[in-house]
Amino acid sequence: MCHVIVTCRSMLWTLLSIVVAFAELIAFMSADWLIGRAKPSGPEEGDSSSRAGGPQEPFRPTLGIYGRCTRISHMQFSRRDTLCGPYAETFGEIASGFWQATAIFLAMGIMILCTVAFVSVFTMCVQSIMKKSIFNVCGLLQGIAGLFLILGLILYPAGWGCQKAISYCGPYASAYKLGDCSLGWAFYTAIGGTVLTFICAVFSAQAEIATSSDKVQEEIEEGKNLICLL
């Protein structure tokens, strides 16, 4: 018989697992890892925007692991569009070998985190498989995912010396040196998600303790199928 067991600690672990997986996935897909040098977007000679309000704010293009955002001027219209998308159509076109390694490690970590997030939803009904606690297994997987994420984040700055990064960050950019660039929100989100990944791995033990406590066993012996405990 399936017993639905919900505790504050198990629910918090489930929610954190889902949040971490989404945060890492969004950061990986974003182009806001590096914020490039400011490019003036004022009117040029013959640009009709000079007749429609004067110079605009300087635009800072962004560069991700495999994507980028830049601004395209429309000479025939008084507007400028920001275009975001992948600059690499294949894995081999990613700008740096270090970034290719980063993409592999982050992708592996994110796949594990998404799998754990999916499984965590069902831990309310199923707490063990083959006499192994799902919480402990998921916590171990989250720890492994965290190691993959750390490797990816360590290798990422080594690729700042590639030609693509130099075109955004200036000639002084090199491995672990930003040059004229600054770090975008995606990089910090990936770091924060990595920290939360290890917190989830540790907290999974508390979720396991909460769902296997004596109070839960008493509720089961009383014949209750839905057990909600603080």
UniProtKB/TrEMBL annotation:
It holds the Pfam family L_HMGIC_fpl. Residues 40-61 are annotated as: Disordered. The chain crosses the membrane at residues 12-35, 98-122, 134-156, 185-205. GO terms for biological process: single fertilization. Keywords: Fertilization, Membrane, Transmembrane, Transmembrane helix. It is a multi-pass membrane protein. It is found in: Membrane. Coiled coil: none annotated. GO terms for cellular component: membrane. PANTHER family: LHFPL TETRASPAN SUBFAMILY MEMBER 2 PROTEIN, LIPOMA HMGIC FUSION PARTNER-LIKE PROTEIN. Belongs to the LHFP family. This is LHPL2 protein.
